[in-house]
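User: I've been going back and forth on whether these two constructs are worth ordering. Before I decide, could you fold them both?

Assistant: Sure. I'll take them in the order you sent them. The first construct and its structure tokens:
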Amino acid sequence: MNVAPPKHLGELFLGFLWIGARSFGGVLPWAYRTMVEEKRWLTHADFTETIGLCQFLPGPNIGNASIVLGKRWFGLAGSVVAFLGLMALPFIWVLLLFTVYNDFSSNPLLKSIVTGVGAAGGGLFIGTALKLGRPIAKKPAAGVLIAGCFLAVAVGRFSLVAVMPAGILLAWLAARRNWL
């Protein structure tokens, strides 16, 4: 796939503004769709690697990715522009939605709508995780690592602070032996 990073700061800002504008229920699906499928700023592999790095860092994954990618393409100015583009509309919308929700939070219909939106967001997240994991999971060692991390966190209730370094160490060892 041919990639073409944004040509100027305005394109970078509008791209991340578009991601932030559509990211009700979760940013990751829209970020992938925008950066890989629509704008072709990144390959699937580059997106996956960038998100993997940003997931390890403290803070929101896509917020971190906007800073990393903005810096890659335009330096410090790109980091600031991409992050502001990502956060501008959600910041305004959250303030407006809070105002409405605060006044009507006891309404059963509104509670049902919020529950439905949460379920839809969960579905988007699972769909994106499956899309990102499909190429990686074809390698047996990666499948074992994915399953092990999932079981440790979701079933065993181990802390991510413990699981992430162990997963990174195991992934590094597997990569050194060409298992990944």
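The second construct, handled the same way:
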Amino acid sequence: MSSAAPDSAALFVDRGYEVVAVDISEFEKLEGCVTCLSVRIR
């Protein structure tokens, strides 16, 4: 999860998820997000 969203991260932690906060500020400047940087593996 983006480190720019600490309140959202806290909501996930409160629900029992482990959150890994990552600085993606350079991608966010280009209107990218964590979803755009993800690769789904089946």
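Notes on the second construct follow. The chain has two helices and no strands. Residues 1-42 form one domain.
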